Fold this sequence. Notes:
Helices cover 40% and strands 24% of the residues of chain A.
Amino acid sequence: MAFRSEEQQAAATGPEVIRVEGLHKTFPGGVKALDGVSLSVGRGEVVVVVGPSGSGKSTLLRCLNGLEETDSGRVAINGLDLDHRTATRLAIRRQVGMVFQSFNLFPHLTVTGNMNLAQRLVRGRSASEATEATQRLLAKVGLTDKADAYPAQLSGGQQQRVAIARALAVEPSIMLFDEATSALDPEMIGEVLEVMKTLAYEGMTMVVVTHEMGFAREVGDRVLFMENGRVVEEAATDEFFRSPRQERTRQFLSQIL
Amino acid sequence: MVLTRAARSRAIDLAAFGLILAGVAWLAARGAEGLGYHWQWYAAPGYFGSWEAGSFIPGPLLRGLGVTLQITALSLVLCMAVGLATALLRLSPSWAGRALARCYLETIRNTPLLIQIFFTYFVLAPLTGLTAFGSAVLALSLFEGAYASEIIRAGIVSIPRGQWEAAASLGLTSWQAYRTVVLPQALRRVLPPLAGQAVSLVKDSALVSTIAVYDLALRGQLIVADTFQTFEVWFTVAGVYLALTLSLSLAAGRLERRLKGGA
């Protein structure tokens, strides 16, 4: 059963906000991470990227906000072409939030410090404005009582929820999730997925690299299956799980389901 | 009373320690006796200062200590600034910046400090109108700054890439990421070796006595030249340096514990 209603699914194919064309990326040492990847994501759409490790999923995600340099090809976010200029990069990162597998909270700052930092430096908010937004977002991820805690005092699930809230604090229009639950103990995966579902439900545009097929099925509008730096199959979620066209996809699904 | 095993081994340790100290003192005393040395410890306190007509007159050692403190304090601030700037240059994407930092580092680390002090005082100072005191501060800052920069660089490099990426993904510029995310963590990590560098600075500052800066070491030398109380004066001067460096280490240790408590 789809998590989102039919109307939301329809509305999900809004105007294009992410455009990727013919992306190539070879790592030093000759490993081809991306070998001609193209992708288009509409506003409010949730695209799930799956595939075996080393297939280029994370690299693709990291190219979307310029954390990774590309060799050739084009990435455009909300119509803005990602080029080599620092200003473009900063402009795009203001619109694209990212959540990492290893949380990457700043250990020397409290939860509030973590969340206020970019609001103040990037959004130019005052301390009180930032703290207000921080409290609102902490309530949303269910961590109001942890505002003054340091990251080391939180569980993995709590840290990841703070990381999501921290990314949201800059008010991005797109969120990228890079295996956000892979480093978590099993009993904490649920609380993080719950936050991600809520976000999707609220209409956030999301590109999610994950091994959680349950989440992909429930929340994803579209699934991208990658291997060896290429997109092997791309289909609407139901279609992807029910009747995959490629033999390789069937093989992959039979292994993990 | 029955001692526990741990207490007994500790008592034996202390006894051995006391015995060694006593042995060293005895050797020194016998050596001095053999030289026919005439101890005049009663004169030592007077070199720190004296009371005359109800007011305190600072003696030469105290005034020397004041100069040493001024030089080390100024050099410490400057050497940290130089060290930080050099570390950032070495890690910068600019080729020219990296080359500049590298030249500075290699020059400083591969020439003796004494020669650097002479070069600053006899070559740079006449060209720039620098005083002896200024030359001392400049030479010491540049020297210790080179070592501080390597320590700071190691601290920066030790911060995981994920911290940079998180800062970048939030839209921070690289300078903002340095200032608010990377440097606060890196400096905390390298506080102990930086404190060690500060201790080196205090000790190395004695070399500036060679360019007529009236620091603690030069004051001691002058008193010895006047009074021939070689043993008393150098024991005292060494004790003052020791007190200085020990309190510096103690302060650094306390600061480190406080920072650790915070995060």
